[in-house]
Amino acid sequence: MTDDTRLRATVPTITELSDKGAIVLVLAHFGRPKGVPSPDLSLAQITKPYEAVLGRPVRYIDWEGDTANVAMLQPGDIAVLENTRFFGGEEKNDPAVVERFAALGDLYVNDAFSAAHRAHASTEGLARRLPAFAGRAMEAELVALQKALGEPEHPVAAVVGGAKVSTKLDVLKHLVTKVDHLIIGGGMANTFLAARGVNVGKSLCEHDLTGTADEILDAADRANCTVHLPYDVVVAKEFKANPPTRTVNVHEVAADEMILDVGPAAVESLGDVLKNCRTLVWNGPLGAFETSPFDKATVALAKTAAALTIGGTLVSVAGGGDTVAALNHAGVADDFTFVSTAGGAFLEWMEGRELPGVSALLQ
């Protein structure tokens, strides 16, 4: 195990149940074995790391003889069951697999928001088979998301970055109906700039989606959502660490240059936008933050958001793998109101879609 973030997230729920005398059986998946058991994907290897995180013993139980092994556990014991995806029917929500899981317990607790967008046997089927509850991590996630887009305090801003518009079309279409300010960064901003007639040179740009970008901009106008695109940018002729760069107006990008970050004037203006907002949802970096010096805009705006959060004027919720990495890089992840480690589930929530693992808990 190289990252114990998700193990640590379950500690409050697991210890609370154990302390109250429950026998705690942990269901989880690892990798994509597609129903074929593999030693490399066995959850036996997480028992020691999990013991270290929990500070108490953790048993491992294989699916062979699972009922008998579970029957030997005592109140307060904690056990990790083998990878649920070793069952071919797990991802198909097979009723037989649901019954196999249900036979081992009396109550179901889902503490994995990151898997809530999947209608699998261990995330959706089991929740409808046994009395079901949200764990403490799931509870915190849902409370934070409700504050961010469910019933937020306005004005609301959303930062959406990343490489391609095509991966976040549904997110953008949904957000323009929900937020007051939509800040678009990353490579996807280039597609919107191109839609507005800007020559973006060699920049990453989905020219075939400029029509779609126009539709989103029109929808934003109808919804009174202000879309913020960069008006100054950092450009270079090649994408590598610390190349020669220029900071220019977006209309001055040369044919052999590529946009790799938002410029300082635009970032300062975006900071002023956040100062007038009460709620912020963030998904994706503003520039190619993994490569210096194209991290400056993301770091600067993240620090502004963190300072406003600490000052009590902004509720800030962020999520997605690149976003978490960017906020950690900026050193402000702990200063946001809530940072979700979920990827697909966070995006589907931003799209306004129903999450099967959550809906099953609300039945």
UniProtKB/TrEMBL annotation:
InterPro entries: Phosphoglycerate_kinase, Phosphoglycerate_kinase_N, Phosphoglycerate_kinase_sf. It is an enzyme of class 2 (transferase). The keyword Isomerase does not apply. The keyword Transferase applies. One of its GO terms (cellular component) is cytosol. Its EC number is 2.7.2.3. Monomer. This is Phosphoglycerate kinase.
